[in-house]
Design brief:
62% of the residues lie in helices and 2% in strands. By secondary structure, the chain is mainly α. The protein has 2 domains: 2-138, no CATH class; 141-264, no CATH class. A two-stranded parallel ribbon has the order 1-2. The protein is globular, with a radius of gyration of 20 Å. The termini are far apart.
Amino acid sequence: MPLLIFSLFLLILGCNQTSNGIETQSTAAENVNRYCVVCHTSQNLPEESLIAPPLEAVKRRYQTEYPVRDTFIQQMTSFVLYPDHEKALMFGAVRRFQIMPKQPIEGAAIAEIAAFIFDNRLDQPDWFEAHYQQSHPQASASLPDYQDQFKQLDETMDLHLNEGAKWIIPNELFARVRQLQAYVNSLKSENSLEDYPIIAQAIRSKMPSTSMSAFDNNTVYRNFQSVLETKIAYLEQSETKEQGEYALLQINQQLLLFDAYFMAKE
């Protein structure tokens, strides 16, 4: 992870001397292209010529340690804000490239970049996948291993009733989730591998906004949506049809639980 900082913000001092307001207005995708891939390159440079690991390597290391989306974002943001050896995850990278000094970057901008990294399929050098699988043979997950990831994810959700009653959430939030349920139910039963990123983006676009009051007042719902967002990211990054269909099934099953635990204000 330490190397993530090197690309995330190396250019900030030299190329981004503008105000924090302009930085905030930039999209996460633009920030990733501007600050991350400059050093965490996806170009086909020889491995020995790199000045930082590919961004996909950083992402996979963090997702291995923090598979839940919110935790991934929090931990990556925390490291970039306050980098030190004790919080580092990529020990070989630290030995080779050293830790990047703390950079004067807003936490909100870092969090947006971390969220983009988690949510999106990243470009990578042509040699990367074979190299990664050779170095991390356990990463070649079979479907049972993939299913275990979802089981572990569901365990973090801690879904429960409010003293035997459903949690009451705002009408707007309830309606948005109902629309999301309808969309997922309308999907065809068989999809191609190329369909899953498109479906994931469509589902994500229909998700309730995290600015809604329920996210401040209801930890149970916040955890529910955080886990759902993580499953959507898994769907988007599916490497086989079996993984894609299983991720879609898990999203649908979680949405079916919604009505058992939440209700709209009357």
